[in-house]
Design brief:
- There is one protein chain.
- This protein has about 450 residues and is mostly beta strands.
- The chain has 2 domains: about 240 residues, 3 Solenoid (Pectate Lyase C-like), CATH 2.160.20; about 200 residues, Pectate Lyase C-like, CATH 2.160.20.
- The protein is built from 6 helices and 27 strands.
- The strands form 3 sheets. It has a 21-stranded parallel beta sheet that branches. Strands 5-10-13-16 form a 4-stranded parallel beta sheet. It has a two-stranded antiparallel ribbon with strand order 8-9.
- Helix 5 links the parallel strand 20 and strand 21.
- The radius of gyration is 22 Å and the shape is globular.
- The structure holds 2-acetamido-2-deoxy-beta-D-glucopyranose (3 copies).
Length: about 450
């Protein structure tokens, strides 16, 4: 299979120019080596029944216990055959591959009453939604290394509806579970899996490094609350490529902790590449924030195709966050139908409690957005910095945002400085400094 795709790749090289090849085939997915697992087991060996009714928690826990304790050289692959495997939440272990066959579904039970609770993240100080602990992710990994979740596009189904309804009726006791979280983990690959109906965020790598997420599909209804697609959080060396995401909240949102807790924990997100993502959402396509207290730097997002969006590109932070957002490069974005093309805001999101420091102002500098094409965009852009900490080095180049008739508005800016080149509609005066072309081109 691998050989085959390599030869197809070489074959296609003969027909495309090297520059377009560089654009379309660049990849960071090699940062985690793909290991072959000689040892293979199936969930059915542990009593797993894929009839959609049997609860398979014991089978999953027993299979993973076996992987953890037998420690087979090169790790173990856990095979999930076609069928619907209902289960409660479970923990993964190191050196394993969770492999979902075509037609395999791992489906969460809807028993919110007995769902396990875990400690809040230190960089948030409490659950993201409610004070106190938080419900464990459906599939959870803590302190792991060398874990792969892959297969032939089987499905991990959170059956989130009951959780969304609790959120809507304000009957949640704690913060809803993510579909998948990896915490303090490294060398993680997630590929060729469909994620659907997460109770809360879909994929949440936090305090992780060397994470590759590619060829995934993430689906949740447009009105499902907080079903973010992928949220790299206080993590570095993360590669997200070639995926389709359509959910009720941000498609990809980079975060790094919340106000005084995030500042004290001090763990940035850095060296993150997001490439060839397609999707749709009432919120943002590519988002940074709003929890940015550990700092966010060295981010590249390119070849992003969006439709029916709230905001195409959204960088968001707040007073009390501290930290920084710097060296962000976003290019080659196509947006069809959005409320806002580009939005950079210093007043977004809430606070964990009243003890945030109002003098902890975030620093936002070196944001370069290039080559954005939008059609049917209601508001071109809004860049609203903070009075005590203006956004600097905001560079826009080759941006064309076309509005629908009558509703079209132009750029709105305050407390911001930077440059622009070939931006239409004509950008706000704050971004019309001369020498723009030099400043922009030096970093792209
Ligand atoms: C940053 O990530 C890229 C892959 O996207 C990797 O090749 C590079 O080594 C990483 N840089 C550092 C400093 O780790
Ligand atoms: C799963 O991991 C969590 C967090 O590390 C831990 O609190 C919990 O006890 C684990 N559950 C099981 C069944 O091992
Ligand atoms: C799985 O879906 C992804 C994303 O749509 C696609 O790129 C990939 O080719 C599919 N893989 C298989 C094995 O069908």
């Amino acid at each position: 299979m691998w050989r085959l795709s390599v030869s197809i790749f070489l074959f296609s090289c003969l027909f495309v120019s090297s520059s377009s090849l560089g654009d379309s085939e660049a990849t960071c997915s090699g940062i985690v080596p793909l290991r072959y697992r000689y040892d293979k087991i199936s969930i059915t060996d542990f009593g797993g029944v894929g009839d959609g009714r049997t609860v398979n928690t014991k089978a999953f826990r027993a299979a993973i216990y076996r992987i953890q304790h037998l420690k087979r050289r090169g790790g173990t692959l856990l095979y999930i055959p076609p069928g619907v495997y209902l289960t409660e939440s479970f923990n993964l272990t190191s050196h394993m591959t969770l492999y979902l066959a075509k037609g395999a579904v791992i489906r969460a039970v809807q028993d919110t009453w007995n769902w396990p609770l875990i400690d809040p993240l230190p960089s948030y100080g409490r659950g993201r939604e409610l004070p106190g602990g938080r419900y464990m992710s459906f599939i959870h990994g803590d302190g792991l290394r060398d874990v792969v979740i892959t297969g032939q596009n089987g499905t991990i189904d959170g059956q989130g509806e009951v959780w969304w309804n609790m959120w809507r009726s304000r009957t949640l006791k704690y913060t809803r579970p993510n579909l998948i979280e990896f915490k303090d983990s490294k060398e993680i690959i997630i590929s060729n899996v469909i994620f659907q109906n997460s109770p809360f965020w879909n994929i949440h790598p936090v305090y992780c490094s060397n994470v590759v997420i590619h060829h995934v599909t993430i689906l949740a209804p447009q009105d499902s609350p907080n079903t973010d697609g992928i949220d790299p959080d206080s993590s570095y060396n993360v590669c997200i490529e070639d995926s389709y995401i359509s959910t009720g909240d941000d498609l990809v949102a980079i975060k790094s902790g919340w106000d005084q807790y995030g500042i004290a924990y001090g763990r940035p997100s850095s060296n993150i590449t997001i490439r060839r993502i397609t999707g749709s959402s009432p919120f943002a396509g590519i988002a940074i924030g709003s929890e940015t207290s550990g700092g966010i730097k060295n981010i590249i997002a390119e070849h992003i195709t969006l439709s029916n969006m709230g905001v195409g590109v959204n960088i968001k932070t707040n007073i009390g966050r501290g930290g920084y957002i710097k060296n962000i490069k976003i290019s080659d974005v196509y947006v069809d139908t959005a409320k806002y093309g580009i939005k950079i805001a210093g007043d977004t999101g809430d606070h964990p409690d009243e003890n945030y420091n109002p003098n902890a102002l975030p620093v936002v500098k070196g944001i370069h957005i290039k080559n954005v094409w939008g059609v049917n965009v209601r508001n071109a852009g809004s860049i609203q910095g903070l009075k005590g900490s203006p956004f600097t080095g905001i560079c826009l180049s080759e941006i064309n945002l076309h509005g629908s008739l009558n509703s079209y508005k132009t750029w709105k800016c305050s407390d911001v400085s930077g440059t622009s080149l070939k931006v239409s509609p004509w950008p706000c005066s704050e971004l019309r400094t001369t020498g723009g072309s030099n400043l922009c081109s030096s970093t792209f």
